[in-house]
Amino acid sequence: MNEPSEKGSRLGDYLSHMLEAIRLARAYTEGMDKQAFLEDKRTQQAVILNLLTLGEAASHIARLYPAFSDNHPQLPWKQMRGMRNRMAHGYFDINLEIVWETMCNDLPGLEATIHTVIEADSGS
User: Fold this and answer.
1) What is the Cα–Cα distance from 124 to 120, expressed in whole angstroms?
2) Annotated catalytic residue 23
3) Cα angle at 108 between 90 and 43, to 5 degrees?
4) What is the chain's mean pLDDT, rounded?
5) pLDDT score of 62 more than 50
6) CB neighbourhood size of 4 (10 A)
7) Which of 21, 69, 72, 92 has a CB 3.0–4.6 Å from the CB of 54, allowing a cystine?
8) Which three-class secondary structure state does DSSP give residue 3?
9) d(Cα 121, Cα 84) in Å, to the nearest integer?
10) Is 84 a residue of the active site?
11) Per-residue pLDDT for 61 more than 70?
C-alpha cells in the first residue's frame, strides 16, 4: 500500500497528537509522587487515556506511513503500540507501577525525541 500523498497526509496530525498526549499525561502528574498517583483513580484514568492515545497515533503512523516509522527507529514504535494494546484489551490487568514508570522514565525522553524528529523532517 502506498503512503498517503503529502497533500493528504495526516502524519503531522498524528505526531501532534502524540506530543499532546505526552504533555497532558505529564501535566496531570506534575508535583505528584508515586504513592499519590497510585491512590488517585481520576489521575490514573487520565494518564491511561493519554497513553492509549499515544499508542493509537503510533499505530496509525506505522500502518499508514511505514517509511516514516522505518526511517525513525529511535522512536519505540513497537513498544508504544504494544502498551496501547495491553491496556486497551486488558483494562483490569493494567499494572499501575508500569504506567508510573513509563510516565517518569520514558515520556520525557520520548517527547524530546519526537520534537527532534519533527524538526529534522521539517528541514528536509
Assistant:
1) 7
2) no
3) 45
4) 91
5) yes
6) 12
7) 21
8) coil
9) 26
10) yes
11) yes
Catalytic residue among 10, 42, 89, 115: 89
Please report where in the chains the cell 499525561 appears, as a residue.
25
Please identify which of the residues 23, 26, 42, 84 carries the catalytic annotation. Answer: 84
Question: Is residue 51 within 8 Å of residue 73, measured between CB atoms?
Answer: no
Cα–Cα–Cα angle for 6, 83, 36, rounded to 5 degrees: 120
pLDDT value of position 3: 55
Of the candidates 62, 54, 63, 68, the residue with the CA atom closest to the CA atom of residue 103: 54
Roughly how many angstroms between the first and final C-alpha of the chain, as a whole number? 24
What single DSSP character describes residue 91? G
Cα torsion angle, 82, 45, 35, 19, sign? positive
Interatomic CA distance for residues 113 and 72, integer angstroms: 10
Per residue in 77-109, pLDDT (tens digit) is 999 999 998 888 876 689 999 999 999 999 999
Please identify which residue in the block is written with the cell numbers 492515545.
53
User: Nearest-5° angle of CA 103, CA 96, CA 117?
Assistant: 25
